[in-house]
Amino acid sequence: xxxxxxMAGMDKSDDRGEPSSAPMPAHxxxxxxxxxxxxxxxxxxxxxxxxxxDRLTAFTGRPFFxxxxxxxxxxxxxxxxxxxxxxxxxxxxxxxxxxxxxxxVSALVMAVLILVTQRNADRLADVRGQMTLELASLTEQxxxxxxxxxxxxxxxxxxxxxRVDAEAHEMSISSDPHAVLxxxxxxxxxxxxxxxxENPAAGHPRA
Length: 207
Prior knowledge:
It is a single chain. By secondary structure, this protein is mainly alpha-helical. It has two domains: about 1-5 and about 20-45; about 45-195. The chain contains seven helices and no strands. It has helices at about 1-10, 25-45, 50-60, 65-85, 95-155, 165-170, 175-195.
C-alpha cells in the first residue's frame, strides 16, 4: 500500500525525465490511502480458496498460457497423427476423441473460474458504487448549502443589489434521493412503453 502511495506521489517529472521529489498534497494522499485500504480490506476478507481461484484465473488469462495451450494441442495432434500414419499405436487416433473431451472439460472449468472471479470482483464494484453514490449525495447537499449561504450573503450585503434568482433558489434545495429514484423509474417505464412493439394480433380482427 505504501508503494502505491509513493508511486502516486511521483506524478511530476523534471526536465531530465526523473521523478520529482515534491511532496504529495495531504488530501491527495488521504484519498489514495483510502482507496488502497478499500482494496486491501477486500483482499483480506476473501477466503483462501477465493484467492487461489483469482490467481489461477489471472494465470490462465495471460498470453503465455494461450501459447502453452496452442503448443500442447499442436504437439498432441501431430504426435497422434504421425503414429497413426506410421502404423503405430497412438493414444488418441483421429478424430482425437480424448482431445475433444479434454477441451470440453477445460472450457467448463475455465467458465466456472471466470464466474467465481467475476463474482468476487462484483462485490468490490458494489462497494465502490455504494461509496460513489453516498459521496455524490453528500456533495450535492454541500453544494446546495453553499449556494444557500451565498444567497443569504447576497441578500444581507448592502453593496449588492438584491434580486430574486429563481434558479439559485431551486439549486439551494437538496434533492430527495427517493424522489429522484422514483422519477428515474417513471421515465424508464414511459420509455419502455413507447418503444414496446405493438401486439400483432391487435390489428387483425377475428374471422
